[in-house]
Amino acid sequence: MASLVQHPILQQSFAIIDREIGIHGFTPDEYAVVRRVIHSTADFDFKQAIRFSATAIAVAKNTLVTGIPLVVDVNMVRQGVQTLVARTFDNPIVVAVDQAKVALPGKTRTETGLIECCRQYPEAVYVVGNAPTALAALCAAIAGGQVRPALVIGVPVGFVGVEAAKAQLARLEIPQIVVAGRKGGSSVAAAIVNALLVLAWESL
Amino acid sequence: MASLVQHPILQQSFAIIDREIGIHGFTPDEYAVVRRVIHSTADFDFKQAIRFSATAIAVAKNTLVTGIPLVVDVNMVRQGVQTLVARTFDNPIVVAVDQAKVALPGKTRTETGLIECCRQYPEAVYVVGNAPTALAALCAAIAGGQVRPALVIGVPVGFVGVEAAKAQLARLEIPQIVVAGRKGGSSVAAAIVNALLVLAWESL
Q: How far is CA A99 from each of CA A74, A113, A137, rounded to the nearest angstrom?
């Protein structure tokens, strides 16, 4: 299929990252994801922090092309991916926080909405850029056998519950892309999804 | 005025940052901004990189309460600020990239839209989280006397033209908040605006 036209500034930025990245052990496809994350943050720490499970990239490429739904935790992630989704596979984008008018007792609203998404989209690609509570709830649902996402992108950012939720995900045998430690965020989540969409598109 | 209710997880996160930040020379108001940026990125590098001009915080507090328009470069920034804007001063949010259907020759679409915003909102608060081309165009319009923004938040991220645009802004005598170097982004821009909205609200 035709290559997605990428802006010259993006191409120049990628060339600079290629020169500065140094030695790494990523496959070419994994590196395309890492490079896009570094482009969106100007932070080379992500070279050390991003982890891909063995089948994550292959699953992403195979399922994104089918138009699989993307469940994202917050609207900033949707905003960051919707342009490229519209130019590629038109995957439905479901925003977890919008699925809950109010939070269930003792839960955040994003977590409450995520649990609702688990019921409706048990096999979607899940993308958590913001709410560690949502990632923890998703992990509990996976561990309990209620859902079997095709892929989980687990990159919430922050200081409370973030590392624990990521560790919870890492223990599950589910295709996953994780940023270890405290870093992550909506821009990182969007960059990962956008890189995977380009890889999927170019594999056709 | 009543304090804005902040989620307990946000308060806990702030307490962790307070313990880890170490010695700094920020005023309490400036630190409230820095802390919110670190919260949104988990990246303490911003402690060194954020620069406030002498009047930036005072201008932000005085103008946000009047409902001054916010011109933001891209939709991810709008998405990141609109909840708190709606809970405080209901400032109009104008997204530069949406003001241009197509890019002018040799310009990016965000830059083209930003130039249009300069005509319509010459005294707004300008927030650039993404497009260095938009920040450079804004700086040229300021230097040329066509616009006099109340405040410029100049925090584009990236590898091409970013440091040059920030340096261009730093030379202008205009109230400003800048992140030096390559880092920045939509989440950083949104965090700065949200912190300023809270400061403005609590000053009433």
A: 10, 5, 15
